[in-house]
Structures are given as C-alpha cells and as structure tokens.
C-alpha cells in the first residue's frame, strides 16, 4: 500500500511540474511583441518558370548565327566623299578581307595621299622638307674707308654662299682699292660640308691678284679650312694653303660680338698669317708674317644694316718685317676706319 501511495504521489508531482512549465512558456510567448511577417513574403505568387527552354538541344530552337557574319552586308558607298579610291576600297572589301574582318580603310572616306580637292596638281612643285630647299646670302662684313700713306683707301671683306642640306658653295673676297687700283686682293671659291651643328669643313682654291706698284706677281693656292662658332661665341675661320712653287701658308681669323645694348655692338677682331718659307718676290718671310688687330663699334638699325667706326693696327714680324723695311715701308701701321656692314 505504501508503495502504491508513493507512486501516485510522484505522478501527481510530475504532472504539476509539467503544467507549471507549460504556463511559464505560454506567458513568455505572450510577453514577446508580435512580429509582422507580411513584409517578408511575396505579395503575389511568383510566376511559374517555363523549363521548356532547358530541355535537350534537340527540343530547343536553333540559334541563327548568320547574323554574326558579314558576307551579305551591303558595301559602304564612298562616292559621296569624292575620293577616287572608293572603287578600290570596295574591291578590297569584297575580295581581300577575311570573313567577318574589319576594313582598315573604313574611316578614310575613300581619300588617299596626293588625291582630293586640295592636292597639288601634277607638274607643280610638291612640298619639301627644310633640308631640300636652297638658301643663299651675301654678307658684306666690312665695307670701309681709311687713310694710309696719305691716300684714301677703300677696303672690303665679304662672302656669298648658296647651300642645300649640309653642303654649301662659298665665295670669299677681301682686298683694298687705292689710287683707283685693286691692291692686295684675295678671292676664294670653297665647297663646304657641315661637320657638326656649329662647324663646316671647306675645300677649294684661292687667287691673289698681282700688285704692279709693289711688283708682286699673282699666285694661286689650294685651300683647306674649318669655319664655325667656337665655345663662348667666338667666330673662327682657319684655312691652310698650298701655293705654286711649294709655298705653304696658314691664316687664322677670330671675331667676337659684344652686345653693349641690343643694337650697339662692339666687335674686336684679329687676323694672323703664317708662311712656310721665304718669298722674296712678294716680300714674305717664313713663320709669323703679320698680325692685324682691330675693334669696331656698330649700331644696327636692323640686323641687315649697321654703320660702324673703329680702329685697326697691322704689325709685321720676322723676315717679313725685314722685307718691309728694305722696301721703305712701316712695320707698324694703324688707321681709323668708318664703314657699313650689311647683308641680304
């Protein structure tokens, strides 16, 4: 009996505990806020998916790939652009291009080089690059007058050239006119070629005229020289000569333009002459024969026209000085000069 009573009491206790747990869980659910799940569902049922397209390839409609090739595409009409090459472009599109390829001339409008409305007509000069043009100039560096031995003397120093590309033909002339006669003139014909951007090599001939007053015969020379612009803007002209009878000579010229203002320019200059052997007929000695140093102040009204005044002094040396003394001349000679410099 006691055992039955204990079992019944245990069952009652277990039932009471289960009812208490159920009440607690229901009260917790009632305490939570109600969540509206209507926003998380589709307002309307999703349309049914037609899986007929996913059937085997035999059931799927065949795709027409003929639209991806261009064998039957109409040719572009380039006749509206006026190009004479339109027909050639159409032929190249029809025959030479691969199937589906892109025409490299499709955007040229049918134009070609040398054709069109603004192309130069046949027989006219075509456009050239800078190195194919011919250039020329005449530069009169000195055209001046001065007094020497009681006589008025006119002197000139000029050069003219014509060039094309890296080659140049140059004529240099220097001399003096006294008593209405040409004296001590030197004329050179030189062919030059650019050695660098600032230097030209020159080769040619030189002719010295006869001086009847000094009983000096004419003489011809072969010339080989170098002319250009040295560092610090010194203009250099160095020429070696081989004359008749085996005589040799070397002449060095140097000039420098010092800009006092943009138009007022001071130009110092020097010239040295050397000979390889004595020449009694012309009164020239071996070694350093003479040196001429001068300075000129010019005013450039324009780059092409500039009058100037200056002073110049010539000195003879060595054997040449001895020949000058025997002839009754002055070893040192100086004069004031006035002239004009121009070029075109």
Keywords for this entry:
344 residues; Porin; twelve-stranded antiparallel β-barrel; 43% strand; elongated
The main sheet comes to: 12 strands, antiparallel, barrel
Strand order of the largest sheet: 1-2-3-4-5-6-7-8-10-11-12-13
Low-confidence stretches: 55-60, 78-89
At the fourth CATH level, what is the homologous superfamily of the domain at 132-343?
A: monomeric porin ompg
Radius of gyration: 52 Å
First-to-last CA distance? 151 Å
Q: Strand content of the residues, in percent? A: 35-45%
Q: What is the fold named in CATH at topology level of the domain at 132-343?
A: Porin
Helix fraction bin:
10-25%
CATH class type of the domain at 132-343: Mainly Beta
Q: Secondary-structure element order, as H and E?
A: HHEEEEEEEEEEEEHE
What is the averaged pLDDT score?
Answer: 80
* Computed structural class: mainly beta
* Second rung of CATH, namely the architecture of the domain at 132-343: Beta Barrel
Would you give an account of this structure?
This protein is mainly beta and 344 residues long. The protein has a domain at 132-343: Porin. Helix content is 14%, strand content 43%. The chain contains three helices and 13 strands. The chain has a twelve-stranded antiparallel barrel with strand order 1-2-3-4-5-6-7-8-10-11-12-13. Mean pLDDT is 80; it is low at 55-60 and 78-89.
What's this, in brief?
It contains 3 helices and 13 strands. The chain has helices spanning about 1-30, 85-95, 320-325; strands spanning about 135-150, 150-165, 165-180, 180-195, 200-210, 220-230, 235-245, 250-255, 260, 265-275, 285-300, 305-315, 330-344. Strand 9 and strand 10 form a beta hairpin.
